[in-house]
Design goal:
The structure holds 3 protein chains of 3 kinds.
Chain A (H helix, E strand, L loop, with lengths): L2 E12 L2 E12 L3 E5 L6 H8 L9 E9 L2 E2 L6 H7 E4 L10 H11 L5 H14 L3 H4 L12 H13 L5 E5 L7 H14 L4 E6 L2 H7 L2 E6 L2 E7 H6 L4 H7 L5
Parallel strand pairs in A: 3-8, 3-9, 6-7, 7-8
Antiparallel strand pairs in A: 1-2, 1-4, 4-5, 9-10
Helix pairs in contact in A: 3-4, 3-6, 4-6
Chain B lengths: L1 H14 L1 H30 L2 H4 L2 H6 L3 E2 L9 E2 L2 H32 L2 H16 L2 H20 L7 H25 L3 H9 L4 H12 L1 H17 L2 H6 L23 H8 L8 H29 L7
Antiparallel strand pairs in B: 1-2
Helix pairs in contact in B: 2-14, 5-8, 5-11, 6-8, 7-8, 8-11, 9-10, 11-14, 13-14
Chain C lengths: L1 H4 L6 H39 L5 H5 L2 E2 L4 E2 L2 H32 L4 H15 L2 H15 L6 H25 L3 H9 L4 H9 L4 H17 L20 H5 L11 H11 L5 H31 L4
Antiparallel strand pairs in C: 1-2
Helix pairs in contact in C: 2-13, 4-7, 4-10, 4-12, 5-7, 6-7, 7-10, 8-9, 10-13, 12-13
The chains are: A alpha/beta, B mainly alpha, C mainly alpha.
Chain lengths: 250, 311, 304
């Protein structure tokens, strides 16, 4: 399998503070890559670097190279096209204040797709993929913000899938939802891993163990260690990694 | 049909992103452009009077005689009208500051939520009353009352103008003070009350010190409002430019005064376009503009702190 | 030993504290009331005195004999056009400026200067705006004293009203909505157009209504820029009556008309003064009530 995403000596600063310190790693195509670590260890910043939404936060500075499919993201002219290739799901579910249908159709519409049949098909496919379809198929015109938290999180997932991304990033998606929904989404992800690269940021080490092929452990803005899941759990190079993954420090 | 044209409009607006961003940026800068333009155009109209004007006379004489009797030179001593503006400002603040701060504290700390909403709406209405209406109230309603109560010949005077201007400045003081009080975290209040302080002790020991910058700024903006008020002052103050000999004589309240703003409003129509009188009135405008900009910038700094990164 | 039998019995100090607190509370309530009651008493008095002349004819007829007889149609329609023209000028500029400050402006000293300029502009005395109007529009741009000059002057003066309202309305839209859109490849402007503006329109509208209320009541800025004590216009047809002014005509406005009838003309019947004041204040209160009702209505159907 070829390398999909590559970080070469990436350092990110928010003003004076260092958010990511000299990160170096590779993510392969169509694998599940998990990032674990305590709060404020730079995990979310890592994701924002990949789709360059970090540019939209004033006062940040990114050094080093980030390659997606061999292309340097900071040299891409069309950053919007890059973002469309990367689906993002953030910790707190965000239903946009528009109908469920419009929520999912939002991305495709910005891309210029306006045919009703085509949009209908995308909406149905994505809602099915995110196991929300059965619950909402009769009320697609309802406000997305009126759904429950777990439903909104699956709506967010559907939105992320609506652009047919080649990379799907999930940032602690299970923080605000119940265990049953979490399991449902995990099943969805297992089904999706044949079609796209999945980056799973999580603070549940057992979730990472269940899902991931590779794991990277971040602590205090630094990449402590990364490698195959079982190796990191059973035989890590650094002592701190083992302690964190086995729940002895948090 | 509507859907299609909507989509078309959307596509058009998306394509026009660059020019739209330029337009937005230009409009964003417009306030700076206008403030600069106000300075420039007023200075332009006053030219060349700032070079030729006897500034010593302007600031230290109260002989404002723009249209003198035959054979005399006009004199432009603005001390009298500056005194008028100052007197109205000071007296009106004696009314507005206690009323404004008191109401703000009541609304923010004592009133029940429903009463709070009602009072805020009423004060919003108060703020909406145009200055010409206040001038009308001063001239037609309060004037005769003051005449009767104090037994004076003319009811439009310093007292009248100050009451009117004070009432006009109150809503501004209330709303900004209330913002300042609301910005104090509830934890301060709870901590103080938990230590056994009464609500009043909590207010003046904890709340006032914590919100003092905002409250100060509120009073300053009230002053700015009083200095700049035109129609109400013009109609309710009478209009004479004497400076009293004893500033602490309470009878001064019943004397007529003339303010900077009212001088411009009253004399512009008679001043010959481009003549010296006309230019000096624009200089008075510059004085007012400078005062108001200084007050606003300083109160902005007081509210937001002096550090740039807090913006 | 009484204190031991009831540990919650207030001590002398505590009793005094409670007393002071209730005195303060009532004192401050008194201040709030002192502020409101007399003003509303005066307004009541005003409407009471105006009652004899208030009728549809009073609104529909034009003033004759220098305002001593007739109604207030010409000033009223003048105020309407003044507000309309100033709104057409100021609304786009003000809204776009609000968008710039909240969405685009970098967090630096220049943005801080912009914000200071907005507050300063709001604090510039209205008579100074009038002088600016004379210098800039009437003389330099050679527009003369007319409806358009006056409307431009009012527009410059009321920009901060719309900018501030827009800025606050936009800031109330959660950041998460913007991030969600950016992550789907929407550009900054697309995000503003499709998410931010539709969800802040009510706040912006409130600002626009406030501008209308300010524009309708202002007197000083139009004193030398176009308002007239009386105008000679043809009143032959309904069309003339509804559109008596061209953009380059001098015009009558309700606020200036009130100034004229209240102070400038001897022998003015009392009720004509009160009538004009009553119509103006009713107009302003109506506009503001509308804005408050709109705010409450829109708050009740918030989408998130």
């Amino acid at each position: 399998m070829s390398v999909h995403i590559e970080f070469n000596n990436v350092t990110v600063r928010y003003g004076q503070d260092i958010a990511l310190d000299d990160i170096d790693l590779e993510i392969k195509e169509k694998e599940v890559f998990s990032i674990v670590g305590p709060a404020n260890s730079g995990k979310t910043t890592f994701l924002k670097c990949i789709n360059r939404t970090i540019d939209l936060i004033t006062g940040t500075k990114v050094d080093g190279k980030i390659l997606v499919s061999g292309e340097d993201v900071n040299e891409m002219n069309n950053v919007y096209a890059l973002r469309r290739r990367i689906g993002m799901v953030f910790p707190l579910p965000v239903g946009l204040p528009m109908s469920i249908y419009d929520n999912v159709a939002y991305g495709p519409r910005r891309q210029g797709i306006s045919g009703k049949a085509e949009l209908d098909e995308i909406v149905e496919r994505c809602l099915k993929q995110s196991v929300l379809w059965d619950e909402v198929k009769d009320r697609l015109q309802m406000l997305g913000t009126k759904l429950s938290g777990g439903q909104q999180q699956r709506l967010t997932l559907a939105r992320a899938l609506s652009l047919d991304p080649e990379i799907l990033c999930l940032d602690e998606f299970s923080i605000a939802i119940d265990p049953v929904t979490t399991m449902k989404i995990e099943e969805v992800l297992s089904g999706l891993k044949d079609e796209m690269t999945i980056i799973l940021v999580t603070n549940l080490t057992q979730q990472a163990r269940r899902m991931a092929d590779h794991i990277a452990f971040f602590n205090a803005s630094e990449l402590v260690e990364w490698g195959e899941t079982e190796k990191l759990f059973e035989n890590p190079d650094k002592e701190i990694t083992g302690r964190y993954l086995n729940g002895e420090f948090g | 049909m509507i859907r299609k044209s909507q989509a078309k409009l959307g596509a058009f607006l998306d394509k026009a992103e660059k020019p739209i961003q330029w337009l937005i940026t230009l409009c964003g800068w417009s306030s700076i452009i206008f403030v600069a333009a106000i300075f420039i155009f007023i200075l332009k109209e006053s030219w060349p009077a700032p070079l030729t004007l006897n500034w010593g006379e302007f600031f230290f004489s109260h002989r404002w005689i723009p249209v003198p009797a035959e054979g005399n030179e006009p004199t432009y001593g603005a001390m009298g009208i500056m005194y008028g503006t100052l007197a109205i400002t000071v007296v009106s603040m004696f009314i507005a500051v206690p009323l404004g701060l008191g109401s703000a504290v009541y609304i923010s700390e004592f009133a029940t939520p429903k009463l709070k909403e009602t009072l805020k709406v009423l004060i919003e209405f108060l703020a909406a009353i145009p200055s010409i209406i206040w001038g009308f109230i001063g001239l037609v309603i309060m004037g005769p009352i003051i005449q009767k109560v104090f037994g004076v010949a003319v009811g439009v005077n310093l007292l009248n103008a100050s009451i009117v201007v004070g009432l006009m400045a109150v809503p501004l003081i209330v709303s900004i003070s209330e913002d300042a009080l609301r910005a104090v975290p509830d934890s301060y209040r709870e901590a103080s009350l938990a230590l056994g302080a009464s609500k009043w002790e909590m207010i003046y020991r904890v709340l006032f010190p914590a919100a003092k910058n905002g409250l100060l700024a509120a009073c300053m903006l009230g002053v700015g409002r009083a200095v700049g008020e035109t129609m109400a002052v013009w109609m309710a103050s009478g209009g004479t430019d004497n400076i009293p000999e004893n500033f602490f004589d309470p009878m001064l309240l019943l004397e007529r005064v003339k303010a900077l703003t009212a001088t411009i409003a009253g004399e512009m129509p008679e001043a010959v376009n481009g003549g010296e009188h006309y230019q000096v009135l624009f200089i008075v405008g510059i004085v007012l503009l400078t005062i108001s900009v200084v007050i606003n910038v300083v109160s902005d700094l007081i509210i937001k702190g002096f550090k740039a990164d807090k913006a | 030993m009484e204190a031991a039998s009831n540990p919650f019995k207030p001590s002398a100090v505590e009793k005094r504290k409670t007393r002071v607190e209730s005195i303060v509370k009532w004192l401050m309530f008194g201040m709030a009331i002192l502020l409101i009651i007399p003003v509303f008493g005066i307004l009541f008095h005003l409407f009471h005195k105006a009652a004899p002349v208030l009728s549809w004819d009073y609104i529909w007829e034009s003033p004759t004999n220098r305002g001593k007889e007739g109604g207030i149609w010409l000033p009223l329609i003048g105020t309407f056009y003044l507000v309309l023209v100033s709104l057409v000028i100021v609304a786009p500029v003000g809204i776009l400026a609000g968008i710039y400050i909240n969405e685009y402006a970098p967090n630096n000293w220049f943005t801080r200067v912009i914000n200071m300029a907005v507050t300063s502009l709001a604090g510039v005395p209205s008579i100074v705006h009038a002088l600016f109007g004379v210098g800039a529009f009437v003389l330099t741009l050679n527009m003369g004293a007319c409806l358009l000059s006056a409307a431009c002057t009012i527009a410059v003066m009321t920009i901060p009203v719309i900018v501030t309202a827009t800025r606050e309305a936009l800031a109330a839209v959660p950041m998460a909505f913007r991030e969600a859109c950016w992550n789907m490849g929407a550009s900054k402007w697309q995000t503003i157009r499709t998410i931010v503006l539709p969800n802040s329109i009510s706040g912006i509208l409130t600002g626009v209504i406030l501008e209308i209320s300010r524009a309708a009541g202002e007197t000083a800025p139009i004193l030398f820029t176009g308002a007239a004590a009386s105008v000679a216009v043809r009143m032959n047809s309904l069309g003339d009556k509804l559109m008596p002014y061209e953009l380059d005509d001098r015009f009558m406005a309700l606020s200036y008309h009130l100034h004229v009838v209240a102070e400038k003309i001897h022998g003015m019947p009392e009720e004509m003064k009160y009538g004009t004041a009553a119509v103006l204040i009713a107009l302003i209160l109506l506009i503001n009530s509308f804005s408050i009702t709109l705010r409450i209505f829109l708050r009740s159907r918030k989408k998130w």
